[in-house]
From TrEMBL:
Keywords: Transferase. Gene3D superfamilies: Beta Polymerase, domain 2, Nucleotidyltransferases domain 2. It comes from the Bacteria. This is Nucleotidyltransferase-like. GO terms for molecular function: transferase activity.
Length: 297
């Protein structure tokens, strides 16, 4: 059925100067990323922010269609984040319109998974994991066990995604099915957290200890992308300068916690600048070598 109206959609898009490309995904009512029970999702890329998140719903014959516009920058950022909707669209979709090969290039990246993209994703997932871990520590100190349990579930989800990315592939919709074979240890921790017979307190502590000894000690490896950026100049960086550089590279994630952890581990020097209101700046410590491209033990 899609083949019948595909030429018409392509023609409409070619006549729209704001459309950079478009991809269509045949979903089916039981598709894992289809809570709205759509038949077809059409994603249109643009550089005009006025059209960002513009949504249309319509029917073609008996097909229920949703059309979503998104900026190329945001789409690329979502791809770096490994957002499953973007990944599933690229993996399962059909390119409708791609005069500048923007979509085809991203699809190629998805299939070949270049080192730079892998490093970006590992750093981003580590940042999310660290944030959830700090939250869980705070909740445990306050004896808020259910909130700590919820935060630790997030920690394990990011750990699972980190394991998948480290293995050289993208996290997909059925994450724990992927992780079961890639990292059985993380899979077992998740089962214990959810179904274990010990108290909530004991289960949360088990995960937190595992994270401390297994993941946080590999900060340099998982954040090698950020470390390379910091080492690219001898001068100090403000946190805003770091985020500006990361944003240019479609890395849209706050790395303040990582920077504080780098300072705590004496991998980065904290520099105070200014008179009355002193600005915190960060400088790479010359001579420090960071772990890079080392395989997981």
């Amino acid at each position: 059925m899609m083949e019948k109206f595909r030429p018409n959609l392509r023609q409409q898009l070619s006549q729209n100067s704001h459309a950079l490309g478009a991809i269509a995904v045949k979903l089916g009512r039981n598709h894992s990323v289809n809570p709205e029970e759509l038949d077809l999702l059409v994603v249109i890329l643009t550089e005009n922010r006025k059209f960002h998140q513009q949504i249309s719903m319509y029917r073609i014959n008996h097909w229920k269609v949703k059309e979503v516009w998104i900026t190329l920058s945001e789409w690329s950022s979502e791809l770096v984040k490994g957002e499953r909707d973007v990944v599933e669209c690229l993996m399962n979709g059909r390119i409708l319109y791609d005069p500048y090969e923007k979509i085809q290039n991203q699809l190629n990246d998805l299939r070949t998974f270049p080192t730079e993209l892998q490093q970006k994703m590992m750093c981003l997932e580590f940042s999310r994991l660290l944030q959830a871990h700090v939250e869980s520590e705070s909740y445990m100190k306050e004896a808020n066990l259910l909130d700590a349990h919820s935060s630790v579930q997030k920690v394990l989800t990011h750990w699972a995604r980190l394991a998948v990315v480290e293995s050289g592939t993208y996290p997909r919709a059925h994450l724990w099915y992927q992780v079961k074979s890639i990292n059985p240890g993380v899979y077992k921790l998740y089962r214990e957290l959810v179904w274990g017979e010990e108290s909530i307190d004991q289960r949360v502590h088990l995960v937190m200890l595992a994270v401390e000894y297994t993941i946080l000690n590999r900060l340099e490896y998982y954040c090698s992308y950020l470390m390379e950026l910091l080492a690219s100049k001898e001068e100090s960086w403000s946190i805003n300068e770091i985020h500006e550089q990361l944003w240019i590279k479609e890395f849209h994630q706050d790395v303040t916690l990582i920077m504080e952890e780098l300072v705590r581990r004496t991998l980065v020097e904290l520099v105070m600048s200014g008179e009355e209101m002193k600005e915190q700046r960060y400088r790479w410590i010359s001579g420090i070598r960071y772990e890079k491209n080392q395989k997981r033990c």
